[in-house]
Amino acid sequence: MGVGARVWEQDYRRRLLLSDAVVVLASVFAAQWLRFGAAEQDLHIEPTRSLGFGIGYTVLSFVLAACWLAALAVGGTRDPKVFGAGPAEYRRVLDMTLLVFGLFAIVGFAFRAEIGRGYLLIALPIGLVLLLLSRWLWRKRLHRERLRGRNTYRAIVVGDPEMCVRLAREVCGKPHTGFRLVGAVTNGGSLVGEDLAPGLPVVAGYDGLLDAVDAHRVDALIVTSTDSVSPERLRWLGWELESRRVDMILTLALTDIAGSRIHMRPVSGLPLIHVEHPEFTGHRLLEKRLFDLLASALLIVLLSPVLLVLALLVRLDSPGRVIFKQRRIGVGGRSFWMFKFRTMVEDAEDRLASLLDQSDGNGVLFKMKDDPRITRTGRWLRKYSVDELPQLFNVLRGEMSLVGPRPPLPAEVEQYDKWVHRRLLVKPGITGLWQVSGRSDLSWEESVRLDLYYVENWSLTSDLLILLRTVKTVTHPQGAY
Predict the structure, then answer these.
(1) Which InterPro entries has this protein been placed in (predicted)?
(2) Higher confidence at residue 385 or residue 173?
């Protein structure tokens, strides 16, 4: 990376290290105080409680904190490659935290140390939640900086004009990724000086690539899939960039594939990219079902007063049923009754035909921003998506998941192209990528792309992240009508 990139990276890593240290130390000593009381805080002077081999809990807290911070460092949780985008940073924090506590439990058992289980069971959730929260806050700050054009990587994209434009469209549409394209290098020199896309001038042909790298002081060179750059030239280019401390990034023609499914298989010096199949069966699906079952049951119990109040508001606002049932298509094309709080007048379905020509939807779905069938309470319920809370019972019954593709109507499924039916390979969800990415404001193509991306790449970690993003979407609603 260039000098500018290295400066902000080092500063960002120091800030992460400082916040990690504060969180970890606060968590372990808070657990010690909560488990043993204020008197135990003097263990460093005269321990009143010791382990089997005479180590006080204050010493243990320092050892646990040191091991925890070391694991976070060794596990690459502060690697610049995971700054700002994707779930890899959160996953590494989670993995290293669980590893440390697992090892402590094993070592304690092996040495028959009388480590209080309550101490570890308090420190683990407090520390993990605070670590993830602090990383999320730092990430949001980094995103704001990148929207202002700071803390970014200057990059040149190399390849055929069409591929350069495609990559520029993706990168420019997602500034939080941190790449700022300063130009393109493409075949021939006839296009030099022209713009392939707004803000993407052609700065050189292939022969002038290194001169362009030096002139524009770039941090990274992004090479799109192209037949114009031979393997030998690519290897030579890598050597030249190494001496300049410029990263070389190769893109794949594959799109919408999560990084967790992509693995490198070097064979005789030839890097082969192995793409794992999506998982629709097995232990991961069982884990997802257990999480859905426990989480939906817990949420129903906790939210039962809210559900009762909302039901009363619906009943008082307009005559009719409190719960609206509608046929939806679930996993494998099987239909089920989906539950929602009623947000429209009782005869809303009968009045639909007269409103079809006023749809604000995306061509397949009927949506109307000022639908006259929506009740006063219903408009508020829809705005904050709380009309969907009864779907927790669908999750409990196994018809839906907390996170998944949007549950389609039978009429929608009849219009599906063959490849869109892949949405039906997993259970539909109360929330999903479509919910946290614009909802009704999305085009049909974009909503399908998001659903298919989820189907191909889902994981329990991504589900948790989507649920967290859903909280923000509900409190700051957009595209809900």
Answers:
(1) Bact_transf, EPS_sugar_tfrase
(2) 385
Bridge partners for 200 per DSSP: 197
| Residue 193 and residue 110 in one domain | no
For residue 334, count other CB atoms closer than 10 A to its CB: 10
What domain range is 183 assigned to?
Answer: 153-253
Which ranges of 318-388 does DSSP label H, i.e. alpha helix? 348-351, 376-383
Q: Report whether pLDDT(290) > 60.
A: yes
Contacts with 363 (C-beta within 8 Å, 6 or more apart), sequence order: 443, 444
Q: At residue 21, what is the residue type? A: A
Determine, yes or no, domain membership for 164: yes
CA distance 433 to 258: 14
- Do 200 and 96 reside in the same domain of the chain? no
Residue identified by tokens 């700065």 is 203
**C-alpha–C-alpha distance, residues 224 and 161, integer Å:** 10
Residues 426 and 447 in one domain: yes
Compute the distance between CA of residue 414 and CA of residue 369 in angstroms, rounded to an integer. 25
Residue 335 pLDDT exceeds 60: yes
Q: What is the pLDDT of residue 355?
A: 62
Is residue 348 pLDDT above 50, yes or no?
A: yes
Q: Is residue 18 part of a domain?
A: yes
**Angstrom distance (rounded) from CA 237 to CA 208:** 12
Which pLDDT tens digit goes with each residue over 69-122?
Answer: 999 999 999 998 888 877 788 889 999 999 998 888 887 777 666 666 777 888
269 phi-psi bin (left φ>0, alpha ψ -120 to 50, beta other): left
Q: How many independent structural domains does the chain possess?
A: 3
| Residue listed under structure tokens 């998506």 | 385
pTM: 0.66
Same domain flag for 334 and 200: no
The 10s digit of each residue's pLDDT in 113-155 is 666 677 788 888 999 999 999 999 999 999 999 888 888 899 9
Q: What is the mean pLDDT of residues 174-186?
A: 86
> Which of helix, strand or coil describes residue 51?
coil
Neighbours of 239 (CB within 10 A): 8
Cβ neighbors of 45 (< 8 A, separation 6 or more) are none
Task: Please indicate, yes or no, whether residues 127 and 163 belong to a single structural domain of this protein.
Answer: no
Q: Which residues, at least 6 apart from 330, have a Cβ–Cβ distance to it below 8 Å?
A: 336, 399, 400, 407, 424, 427, 428
Q: Inform me whether the pLDDT recorded for 189 exceeds 90.
A: no
What gap in Å lies between CA 342 and CA 374, rounded to an integer? 9
**Whether residue 375 is found in the same domain as residue 464:** yes
